[in-house]
Amino acid sequence: MSLLTRLGRKDGTNVQVIIFESAQAEEETDKSYQTVKTRVHNRIVQEMDPGEQAKLANVHTSPQEIERIIEKYCQRVAADDPTAIPRGEWPKLVKDIRDEMLGLGPIESLRKDGSITEIMVNGPYQVFVERMGKLELTDVKFRDEQHLMNIVERILTPLGRRIDESSPLVDARLKDGSRVNIIIKPLSLVGPALTIRKFAQKPLTVQNLISFGTLDGKMAEFLRACVKARINVLVSGGTGSGKTTTLNVISSFIPEGERIVTIEDAAELQLQQTHVVRLESRPANIEGKGQITIRDLVKNALRMRPDRIIVGEVRGGEALDMLQAMNTGHDGSLTTAHANSPRDALARLETMVLMSGFELPVRAIREQIASAIDLIIQQSRIRDGSRKITYITEVQHMEGNTITTQDLFNYVQTGFDENGKSIGHFASTGLKPSFLDKFALAGVELPMDFFEGDDGSATFHPDGSDF
Question: Directed axis angle between helix 342-354 and helix 318-326, to 10°?
Answer without folding.
Answer: 110
